[in-house]
Amino acid sequence: MKGKDGKKVVIAAVLFALAGVWMLSLKTDSTLEKIAPQQPGGPATYSVLFSGQALKVMSLGFDHAVAVYNWLKLIQYCAYCSDHSLPLNNLYNMTDTITTLDPGFDFVYQMSWVFLMNYDVRPNKIRIEEGEKILRKGWTNNTDSYRLAQDLGFHLFYYEQKYIEAANMYNAAFALRPNFPVYAKLAASLRANAGDPELALMGLKIQYDSTKDEYVRKQLKHQMVKAQAEIIAVELDKKLAQYQKDRGVCPASLQELISAGYINRIPSDGLGGTYRLNTDTCKSESTTIGRLRIFYPPDKKKG
């Protein structure tokens, strides 16, 4: 009897200690949140105080509940930073902690990626690296989510020019959503002609139709206009190439294409500008944005 009682006391003591640590962590988190100074990147307390693995131990089996609590903090953090145009430098760690607690919390991966790519003010390189990590973790843990496959495919294609990997992800999305054949079409096109700006327009349209956030839709619409400007530039390049083939030299300006009857006028780029000739490359470029780097990767089969 004494042995059994002793065991019960030990178990009770361990549970009491774990509960104490958990309550202390919440109290610490809450207190710091109230007194922390506002720093670039948002409130200092939004940096993760405990790793996901540590919180799993302290959650006493209530992993999802703790994940939801931290998700609410993540929403507050994103709202604060986007309202104040501050860098989202804690978002990746917060997302990693939440999704370690609950790997199946697929909406967190998607929301975090959207905020990183559309609201974060840090350099592109950082945002792109963290965005890929978030989506890869999401897809690894949720291979039944066509949205995560779609978002990772778009990220790899549009931001990183990893065309073969992107095609694989769009095929995965199609396998999960066979009534949406545009996924298969985009995957096949990426393998055949990765640098075609028409594909970027197609990918952007899919993302645009998939979100209801008006700010994100506005950003995507602007990117769609840029893709359309690139499509026009490609058409002008064809005329320049024909001029060179016919006459053996590059014209001095796009005006010469008009004089020689290759085009009727220099078109608008849709962004408030028009087009000019880059005499170094004998290609056209928008006076507003130049040329989009995405369409000129070192290796079209990259990925």
Briefly, what is this?
With 303 residues, the chain is mostly helical. It contains 12 helices and 4 strands; from the N terminus they run H-E-E-H-H-H-H-H-H-H-H-H-H-H-E-E. The chain has helices at residues 2-35, 52-58, 63-83, 91-101, 106-118, 124-141, 146-159, 163-176, 182-192, 197-210, 214-247, 255-259; strands spanning 38-39, 42-43, 275-278, 283-286.
Structure characteristics:
mainly alpha; two-stranded antiparallel ribbon; two-stranded antiparallel sheet; 12 helices
Describe what this molecule looks like in 3D.
With 303 residues, this protein is mostly helical. Among the domains are: 109 residues; 77 residues. It is 65% helix and 4% strand. The strands form two sheets. It has a two-stranded antiparallel sheet with strand order 1-2. The C terminus is likely disordered.
Strand content: under 5%
Secondary structure tally, helices: 12
Helix content: 55-70%
Number of strands: 4
Report the sheet with the most strands, covering strand number, pairing sense and barrel closure: 2 strands, antiparallel
Q: Over all CA atoms, what is the radius of gyration?
A: 26 Å
Element order, helices and strands?
HEEHHHHHHHHHHHEE
Q: Termini, distance in Å?
A: 66 Å
Shape: elongated
Side-by-side strand order of the widest sheet: 1-2
Structural class: mainly alpha
Instruction: Name the poorly predicted regions.
Output: 34-42, 295-302
Average pLDDT value? 82
Chart the SSEs and their pairings.
Elements: H1 2-35, E1 38-39, E2 42-43, H2 52-58, H3 63-83, H4 91-101, H5 106-118, H6 124-141, H7 146-159, H8 163-176, H9 182-192, H10 197-210, H11 214-247, H12 255-259, E3 275-278, E4 283-286
Antiparallel strand pairs: 1-2, 3-4
Helix pairs in contact: 2-4, 3-4, 4-5, 4-6, 5-6, 6-7, 7-8, 7-10, 8-9, 10-11
